[in-house]
Amino acid sequence: LCEALAAEGVRVRVLTTNAGLTDWPAAELGTPILQGGAEVIRYPVDRQGGPIRSRALEQALPEALAGSQLLHLSAIWVRSNIDHYRWLYDLMYHLIGEYKYRYNDKYHKCESLLQP
Asked: Is the pLDDT of residue 43 over 90?
């Protein structure tokens, strides 16, 4: 999608992390790289192999998002077909079940989004 938008002349900027990319050159982190016509900026995660959190990305977001339109691929996908919506709802249901299993039946605030 990013490449297609860029091919149409839309300026596309992707902000992401280096999660799972342990060999990514440190010198390229935080630096825009042109990839498939889109500008990609990777920020370092605070700790590889742990929960994905990047304070560097969090600090960059306010300036990067000023005047931007946010578009997430999953939002387009889930709206394109009722079966996609059902699949994603089912995934949420099972992820909450897994959370409750792992954390001794602890309530997760996303549970309130589940409707019978």
From this structure: yes
